[in-house]
Amino acid sequence: MAALHQWGRFVAAQQGAAKLFARLSRHIIGEWFANTQERAKTLAAEFSLIYGHIIRLALCVSVHQLAWIGTGTGIGGWIAFRLLGAKVTLAQAIAIKGLLHPVLAIAFLVPGHVDLQEAAYIGFGAAFGVSPEIAPTASLLRRARDLALGIPNLLCWQWLEWRRLRNP
Question: Which of 59, 75, 89, 127 is the most buried (most CB within 10 A)?
């Protein structure tokens, strides 16, 4: 019951966010965008639509959580740490992954998060007892996974674009 009450607070906070963002944007950008009020109303209406389907929203949140757990146990997480000899629990591996993502989101200006991902793995890994030798190796395994999945996707995309441009 307490979790449901917390969920209700979260939903209420999200629904009130559109008005707050509209007020804040007026102070920051002034009258650069004349239709800020209309955009804020559209955003509020979209939030209302989303939160009008609580069961669907809860299902989406649950699937997203399962995906997080799945990636936390995969090659970039628990399995990698265990194969490398670190005594990391599943919860710790998911926590490291959860702490890593805000760092990578903030560091979007650095191409490929060069060295930031490795530094974050070392720092967060140390907090959970992972040695400084194992943490960057786990990071490199994650990068290898990203390359193994990313390069074929990029090649496929380039091939499709080439076909589209060649046969208009």
Answer: 75
